[in-house]
């Protein structure tokens, strides 16, 4: 009886560790072979723009260069315009990126530009001058033993390109 109870405990432990290793993905157990995914902001959609609140949807593309699928369980981000912090937040979006594949996902963004009105109006006085933007964040990967992948994107927008004629 004692032997049988001991065997059940050992089998249970082996099954638990097998389950945990399967959930965590191959990047956990072979850290030298894991390559960070490439995360890019590909589009910003305006959902609603009112005086006190603006809503956007950020569209990201994540490319997985690894030979195994990549589980994503969230994103933390900050968005800057000429060093003014416009928004920050987090998304608990979760999905799996196939091995050597890509996935496009959306993240809602809500901000209040009212507190930045003077500097923004000053920037828009010259609509053909570029305005710098910076997006920083962390993509959380894996289930139990995941790691965070840092992202940082810089660029410029020209406000005059968005003014209809």
Automatic annotation (TrEMBL):
Protein name: Water stress and hypersensitive response domain-containing protein
Residue span(s) of domain Water stress and hypersensitive response: 39-158
Organism in which the protein naturally occurs: Pseudomonas cavernae
Record Gene3D superfamilies: 2.60.40.1820
Superkingdom per UniProt: Bacteria
Gene Ontology biological process terms in this record: response to desiccation
InterPro entries, per the entry: LEA_2, WHy-dom
SMART domains, per the entry: WHy
């Amino acid at each position: 009886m004692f032997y049988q109870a001991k065997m059940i405990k050992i089998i249970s432990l082996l099954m638990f560790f097998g389950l945990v290793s399967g959930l965590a993905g191959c990047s956990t157990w072979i850290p030298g072979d894991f390559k960070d995914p490439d995360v890019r902001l590909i589009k910003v959609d305006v959902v609603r723009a009112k005086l006190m609140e603006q809503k956007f949807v950020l569209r990201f593309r994540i490319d997985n260069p690894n030979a195994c699928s990549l589980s994503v369980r969230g994103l933390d981000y900050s968005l800057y315009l000429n060093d003014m912090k416009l928004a920050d937040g987090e998304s608990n979006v979760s999905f799996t990126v196939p091995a050597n594949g890509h996935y496009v996902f959306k993240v809602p963004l809500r901000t209040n530009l009212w507190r930045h009105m003077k500097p923004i109006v000053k920037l828009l006085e010259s609509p053909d001058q570029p305005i710098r933007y910076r997006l920083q964040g962390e993509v959380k990967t894996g289930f139990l033993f995941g790691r965070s992948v840092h992202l940082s994107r810089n660029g410029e927008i020209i406000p005059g390109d968005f003014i209809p004629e």
